[in-house]
Amino acid sequence: MLRAPHLIRSTASSIAARRLSSLAKTMAPSAEAPIHLYTAATPNGFKVSILLEELKALGKLDYDIRALSFQKNEQKEPWYIEINPNGRIPAIVDDNREGFKVFETAAILLYLSQHYDKDFTYWFDPANDANNYSEALQWIFFAHGGVGPMQGQANHFFRYAPEKIPYAINRYIEETKRLYSVLELRLKNRDYLAGDGRGKFSIADINVFPWVRGHGWAGVNDVDQLFPNVDAWLQRIEARPGVYEGLGVPVRGKKLTKEEEEKHAAEARAWILGENK
User: How far apart are the C-alpha atoms of 172 and 164, rounded to whole Å?
Assistant: First the structure.
């Protein structure tokens, strides 16, 4: 059986980005906070907001939020293309370093770690802890090249494609499950993906957690039965206060009924197909 919290949160977060302009937490960058986050409520957006919230809770940085509206195609506007030439979210601008711009989620996580986590709370010292640093990079690249792209395709064909193509749906759902099986194996007798012993919570986990958390939206069900180690890992991470705060940036989702899920999927389908014309 699919765990309700995972289904609720993954479904809600996947559609929240389409309602950003009317929500109170949406704000323009301020002059006070040195780091400006440009984002939306998607798995990739949550990766960066989670690390920012974790670092903020430790007093290591402050940041503000500029939520982008996909319906308005703000991520394709010229001013944003100057920040992220790829026209995707998230991106950051760091006024502490003369307005330095960073895009691509893994690159942002590594950048924030390098400049704002000097005591290696959420990553590993490349010079003095080289093996754990390498292992963290391996899991980051595994997620960046595998879980995100494959689960993204599962999302598309399961939820958004204009016609149901059984081969494509099955292909990407099964590949997503295969990737989860890799995580399941790694998490046997471990709490986190990288680090000595049972591991420590790090950017290796942050980089893949929001995608796996959204398994229900991609049609991957029964995670608690098929991948119990992954399910325990999800719950362990989601219990962290910083993660909770990060999942509310730029807006916290709500529980959806089946009918609401279908409605929001239809709205997203219309936007996606319109953008690709």
Answer: 13
What residue type is assigned to position 52 of the chain?
L
Could you tell me the maximum CA-CA distance found in the chain, to the nearest angstrom?
Answer: 53
User: To which residue do tokens 């998230």 refer?
Assistant: 90
Q: Would you say residue 9 has pLDDT above 70?
A: no
SS3 content of the chain, % helix, strand, coil (to 5): 60, 5, 35
Q: 105-132 pLDDT, tens per residue?
A: 999 999 999 999 999 999 999 999 999 9
Q: pLDDT tens for residues 191-221?
A: 999 999 999 999 999 999 999 999 999 999 9
Strands 91-94 and 35-39: antiparallel
Contact 139, 204 (CB under 8 A): yes
Provide the CA 161 distance to its chain's centre, in angstroms. Answer: 22
Helix 4-16 to helix 228-238 angle (10° resolution) is 60
CA pair distance 231, 228, nearest whole angstrom: 5
